[in-house]
Request: fold
Amino acid sequence: MILKLTIDDQTYDIDVPAQMMQEARAFYAKMDSDMDRGWQMSRYWVEKPDQYQRCQIVADRILGAMHTENRNMVALMSGYILSRVEHVQEIVVDTSGDITLTEIVA
Reply:
């Protein structure tokens, strides 16, 4: 599956193998469990992040993985979004430091 990711003026097509997403199901469930306890989103503490906010959180992790050129983490986190948002078309990642401005286009 392909996730279109836009960071600043660059657009990337992240190819996530279906097998990777299948093998990561337990990992994704653990991520959801961790986020169930709340999450710091920029300046705000979110008690129970909804699915959109969870994807914003994960998109921020993708941004960090892109900066460190960790391709495996980019694919793994992209797989999370693809597995949680049906018909996701694009993620527009905010780079100003406010993850609440990241857009998930479905």
